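Usage

Read records sequentially. Each one opens with the input sequence:
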Amino acid sequence: MRRCAVCGKGSVVGRAYTRRGQAKKQGGVGRRIVRKNLRRFLPNLQRVKALLHGSVQRVLICTACLKNGRVTKAP
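and closes with the structure output:
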């Protein structure tokens, strides 16, 4: 599985709900859940040349770590 080399952020499993029917607010009998499909929420990983452990490495870093300056990019 692809993970951030700094914080360890990876993919998370969730569900996508499919609903049908008209909302009660609009005069219907209410929205009903028809099916629940499994889906994955993927982190925004970027391949970056970074200084890690004293050497330049090409690693996958999430954009949150890049924005917060947790990684020093190599020249």
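Summary fields computed downstream for this record:
- Helices lie at 63-67.
- The beta strands are 12-20, 32-41, 45-52, 55-62.
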